[in-house]
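Is this the right way to post structure tokens for a design question? Let me know if I should format differently. Anyway, here goes:
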């Protein structure tokens, strides 16, 4: 079999595209023999100079500008486009279904009791507008109030972060609360969280925020950690590579029927881990618990954030949250233990210190009561799943 040269014009700076590259790499390693050329490619950049001299057999690209589209068409090579922008009409393309993404988001918010749904998008991105349209339609069908904000296009030459931030804060101030906000991607949802923090809007109690792409770096760096829709990028990349392979073998691929994959689900983190609540005393108590549960606080400390008696607070908590304040503190601490066990290699002793337990034995006993497994068993299970 002749070894074919395949170029990848896909940026590596975000989790979505790294997932696509993982899928392409998986296909190339196990199904064929390709010599892959991957260079640094900024989204929206001009066509790279190396295209002028590159001699290859096929290209997988995320075509985000007309300039790159025109240059690639001149090469007259088999290629697959990984962008919904459609700067290369007539070329086979692959993407994640925007309707599926919007359906997951609306269902996630409705399950949590939100009736005010908002979308924050980038008007210069075709897929952002598609997600907005589906989100709005589904919210309206669910008899929810819909709100929308479009930021300055991220790749506009006049883009200025201070103007974007001002527009976000003005919009968020105008929204009713509690409200659930979907960002068109994780980057924009992260900016929404920053604006909420500037305004003192409690997340997720007053504003639940959801992103798209499940870019772990952005989601975990967000404060609070960002919930996100998970696209099946590895499958998209894998099947795009398979499509290119068929084209290089002389098979005809129908460019009018794109390869569209469904999202996998939602990775829930703290930014949507709530129920829609308009009781301000409960909101204050929940916000305090979420921030300080791992500091070994007591219910008495929570009561100081309100003017309620313990009996009144517990009654309202059970009615609105479904748990007592003590149960909520335990849940938050156990969720933090799970994250540290599953995503770090720090010791059980250190985890117990970081989650407010005086002794590791106390933490282990509480964790087993909550999950039915010891911390060690839980960690081994997570590692086994990751390796499979």
């Amino acid at each position: 079999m002749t070894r074919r040269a395949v170029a990848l014009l896909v940026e590596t700076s975000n989790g979505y595209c790294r997932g696509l590259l993982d899928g392409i790499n998986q296909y190339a390693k196990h199904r064929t023999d390709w010599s892959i050329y991957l260079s640094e490619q900024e989204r929206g950049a001009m066509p790279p100079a190396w295209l002028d001299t590159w001699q290859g057999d096929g290209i997988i690209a995320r075509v985000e500008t007309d300039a790159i589209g025109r240059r690639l068409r001149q090469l007259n090579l088999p290629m697959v486009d990984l962008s919904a922008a459609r700067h290369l009409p007539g070329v086979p393309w692959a993407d994640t279904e925007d309707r599926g993404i919007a359906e997951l988001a609306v269902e996630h918010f409705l399950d949590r009791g939100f009736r005010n749904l908002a979308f924050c998008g980038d008007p210069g991105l075709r897929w952002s507008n598609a997600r907005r349209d589906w989100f709005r339609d589904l919210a309206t069908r669910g008899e929810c109030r819909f709100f929308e904000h479009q930021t300055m296009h991220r790749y506009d030459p006049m883009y200025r972060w201070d103007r974007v931030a001002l527009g976000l804060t003005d919009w968020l101030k105008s929204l009713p609360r509690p409200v659930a906000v979907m960002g068109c991607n994780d980057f924009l949802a992260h900016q929404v969280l920053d604006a909420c923090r500037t305004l003192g809007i409690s997340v997720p109690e007053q504003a639940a925020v959801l992103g798209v792409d499940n870019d772990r770096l952005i989601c975990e760096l967000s404060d609070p950690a960002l919930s996100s829709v998970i696209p099946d990028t590895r499958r998209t990349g894998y099947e795009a590579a398979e499509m290119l392979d068929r084209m290089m073998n002389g098979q005809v691929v129908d460019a009018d029927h794109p390869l569209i994959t469904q999202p996998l689900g939602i990775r829930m983190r703290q930014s949507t881990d709530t129920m829609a609540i308009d009781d301000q005393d409960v909101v204050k108590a929940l916000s305090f618990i979420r921030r300080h549960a791992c500091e070994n606080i007591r219910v008495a400390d929570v009561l100081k954030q309100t003017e309620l008696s313990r009996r009144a607070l517990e009654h309202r908590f059970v009615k609105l949250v479904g748990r007592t304040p003590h149960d909520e503190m335990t849940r938050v601490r156990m969720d933090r233990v799970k994250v540290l066990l599953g995503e770090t290699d720090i010791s059980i002793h250190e985890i117990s210190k970081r989650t407010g337990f005086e002794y590791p034995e106390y933490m282990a006993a509480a964790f087993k009561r909550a999950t039915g497994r010891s911390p060690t068993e839980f960690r081994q299970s997570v590692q086994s799943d990751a390796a499979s």
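Format looks fine. Someone answered above. Worth noting: The first strand starts at residue 4 and ends at 9. The chain has three domains: 4-96+233-261, 98-231+267-272, 280-387.
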